[in-house]
Design brief:
A hairpin with a 4-residue loop joins strand 11 and strand 12 (281-287). 37% of the residues lie in helices and 20% in strands.
Length: 750
């Protein structure tokens, strides 16, 4: 229906290929072939012809329009394509085009003077015809309401959108940094070909997104298959990250778009629904809220009517950060496993059961409660079937909690998880919660006295100097005496001086015969030296006999490699194990090779407590774990036993940052990270750790030696008895030799 602003007129029928002049006469055909028209207040001029793709027909058509200035003009068989803009048409007309998309030829263009308003018959094959101006204004209103001074706009269409209308949209779009257009035709071609073309277009669009400061993607289509394919490939191709705004314009009812709910609810997306009525068009803007069911109705946030007003219908702005605080308090799935920072409460049933409700307590549980309250969500805990944190297998699949989050079986992985490049391929990490190092946990030996402690007051070098002096000094005295005495028994002199020096060393009474003063000076100097030695020895010996030594043999990775009997325990399918499997040389390659020798075994976190209490306490196993966990295990043991039964190695290795995890490209992760940083800066998390284990630092620096006051037993002094027994045995041997020698000499004399 046509209507002039002033006066009103209505076009009832017209016959193509001929013009209806204002005086009712026709230029050539007989009156029987003229168009019949009903004019209320004036007559209309209608001109229609076929161009057949020829240039002279176009020129003739332009000249005819200039001469007659028709109210309506149609050009068939124009063979136009989307690459040709509306600039080729005369000015002063509203242009409707139906270009031939899939084969050559065809194409219709209809020109209606600007002073006419018109209603277009519904054909169902295009989203926007006469309403292209309105859609342009809606797009302008939406884009201007969002701050994007440095943004680009990327258009996607299914090929059913009229070229003139689409070019009008691109020219009117608020895109300071440029516009990109991707057209994927869906009419008359196989769905697989559409998917292939769309996947390629998404890849190119992602490249544009990566080089742009910010991007808004506008999709115009009424085709369900096209919209579904775009949603799939835009997520798989990582086009729709949270920083990318998505605006979908369609005439499909909102009830028929439930298949897009999972995509639109987790992205920064809005849907503009064109609602055509009998007298006007109305545009509604919807937002799908995150973590709601597909059956839930999207939230209407704005409307636009023919008064050119964009009215907000909720307190949410356009493209609101709907993850900062949820509106409907959704229920999220948090996967976790029993560990020192998040202890499982119902430990009587550690076996994983589908649907079983599990509860945890600890610092991480308190952190999750703070996040849930701040963002208005609740959560349920689940546990991984294999009880592991997550390891990438050779076929590319993931196990444990990382696998559950990457497969979208869980929304949040509580952990904590060691940040690694391999895991970052399938999940996103929150802000760092802890930075820690791996250490060795070993069992402390029993306090004992070294039976050879009587040798320890003096160093081996001092003992060597004493025995050397006892041998060399008598020889020197004997040598000097032979120079001044004519008659001298050297052997007897050497023995007497040696025993005299030993008497002095052992604080025994001895006499110095009348001799030279230089000889007396040597003995006097020796007395002063032995006085210092004996006093130092006795004091140190008393201290050593009162000290109990606690063996802590494994202080470094080299100690583990050198000891052929010790077995190392590592966490099953953890980040550290992933690193051991990937390293090709160095000390960690040697540690990984221990598995081939049966000296490296794996346990899950819930099994650590039992392994520590049995294997590690026994002394032939050590646990490899992060420092924070080892301190908790030692604190728990101290709480139960009242003593420090384990020790940590002095050497630290494998530094790691620990965080929670979320689904890849999930908008929830950045929001959680902001709140986690605030909790850390306030010192709350470390305070929760101290409150959970008040004895966590008692055994951190336990001494390897302790002092006791008790009577000495044979076990403490059996080394001295061995020396005494050895001396008696040697004297008995010498006694036997002397008897034999004396008997032989008497026999020779006889």
């Amino acid at each position: 229906m046509l209507s002039q602003h002033k006066p009103q007129s209505t076009l009832t029928t017209f016959t193509p290929h001929y013009a209806v002049e204002s005086n009712g006469t026709l230029p050539g055909p007989p009156p029987s072939q003229t168009a019949q028209s009903t004019v209320l207040e004036r007559k209309l001029k209608v001109w229609c012809t076929s161009a057949d793709g020829k240039t002279n027909k176009w020129e003739e058509w332009h000249e005819r329009i200039k001469e007659t200035s028709p109210d309506i003009s149609a050009l068939t068989e124009n063979k136009l394509s989307g690459m040709i803009t509306d600039a080729i048409f005369p000015v002063g007309y509203q242009i409707l085009r139906k270009d031939r998309r899939n084969r050559g030829g065809g194409g219709v263009a209809l020109l209606i003077k600007n002073r006419w308003n018109f209603d277009e018959p519904e054909t169902g094959d295009r989203v926007i015809h006469k309403s292209s101006v309105e859609v342009t204004e809606v797009l302008q209103a939406v884009t201007r309401s969002v701050k994007h001074d440095q943004c680009s706009v990327i258009f996607f269409t299914d090929g059913r959108f009229s070229s003139s209308s689409f070019i009008m949209l691109t020219e009117a779009s608020v895109a300071p940094w440029g516009v990109a257009v991707f057209e994927v035709t869906v009419d008359g071609q196989h769905a697989n070909l559409t998917h292939l073309q769309l996947s390629r277009a998404v890849v190119q669009a992602r490249q544009l997104r990566q080089v742009s400061w910010c991007v808004m993607v506008v999709v115009v289509s009424d085709d369900k298959d096209f919209l579904a394919a775009f949603a799939e490939w835009s997520l798989n191709g990582r086009l729709l990250v949270w920083s990318t705004k998505l605006l979908v314009i369609t005439r499909l009812p909102i009830q028929q778009l439930q298949f897009l709910h999972s995509t639109f609810s987790m992205t920064n997306s809005m849907i503009v629904i064109v609602e055509n009525t009998s007298d006007s068009s109305r545009y509604s803007v919807f937002v799908s809220l995150p973590y709601t069911s597909e059956q839930s109705t999207p939230l209407k946030v704005a409307t636009w009517d023919r008064n050119k007003r964009l009215t907000l219908t909720s307190y949410l702005p356009l493209f609101a950060d709907k993850f900062s605080r949820f509106l409907d308090r959704p229920v999220l799935v948090a996967v976790d496993e029993d560990n020192p920072l998040n202890k499982l409460i119902n430990k009587e049933n550690l076996a994983y059961q589908d649907g079983q409700k599990v509860f945890f307590t600890g610092p991480l549980t308190k952190l999750m409660d703070v996040l849930a309250k701040a963002q208005n969500f609740t959560y349920v805990n689940v546990r991984p079937p294999d009880g592991s944190w997550g390891l990438k297998h050779e076929d590319g699949t993931w196990s444990g909690m990382v696998g559950m989050v990457s497969r979208k079986e869980a929304d949040i992985g509580v952990g904590l998880f060691g940040i690694s490049a391999t895991r970052a391929e399938v999940v996103d990490f929150t802000a760092t919660i802890l930075i820690d190092y791996w250490r060795i946990l070993g069992g402390r030996g029993r306090a004992e006295v070294n039976p050879w402690s009587f040798l320890m007051p003096l160093s081996p070098l001092v003992w060597t100097a004493i025995f050397t002096t006892l041998l060399a000094l008598p020889s020197l005295i004997c040598l000097l005496s032979s120079c001044v005495l004519i008659k001298n028994n050297k052997a007897e002199k050497w023995l007497s001086d040696t025993f005299a020096l030993i008497y002095i060393l052992l604080l025994q009474d001895t006499s110095v015969p009348k001799s030279w003063w230089w000889e007396r000076l040597i003995f006097g100097t020796w007395m002063m030296v032995t006085l210092v030695l004996t006093q130092s020895y006795s004091g140190n010996l008393m201290a050593l006999l009162a000290v109990r030594h606690i063996p802590q043999p494994f202080q470094s990775l080299h100690d583990l490699i050198d000891d052929s009997k010790v077995i190392t325990i590592w966490e099953t399918e953890s980040a550290s194990v992933q690193y051991l499997h990937s390293v090709e040389s160095g000390i960690f390659r040697e540690i990984a090779n221990l598995e081939n020798k049966g000296r490296l075994i794996y346990r899950t976190q819930p099994q650590f407590a039992v392994s520590i209490d049995t294997l590690v306490r026994r002394g032939d196993h050590v646990l490899m774990e992060v420092d924070m966990s080892l301190k908790v295990y030692m604190a728990q043991d101290f709480t139960h036993t009242g003593q420090c039964s384990f020790y940590e190695s002095r050497e630290e290795f494998l530094p790691l940052m620990f965080a929670m995890i979320g689904q890849k490209d999930s908008p929830l992760v950045p929001v959680l990270s902001k709140r986690i940083i605030r909790v850390k800066e306030a010192g709350l998390f470390y305070q929760w750790m101290k409150e959970e284990e008040p004895n966590s630092t008692i055994c951190s620096h336990s001494p390897s030696k302790i002092t006791v006051k008790t009577s000495l037993s044979v076990n403490n002094l059996w080394g001295m008895f061995i020396v005494y027994t050895g001396g008696l045995s040697l004297s008995l041997l010498i006694f036997s030799l002397e008897i034999v020698t004396n008997f032989s000499s008497h026999s020779l004399q006889d």
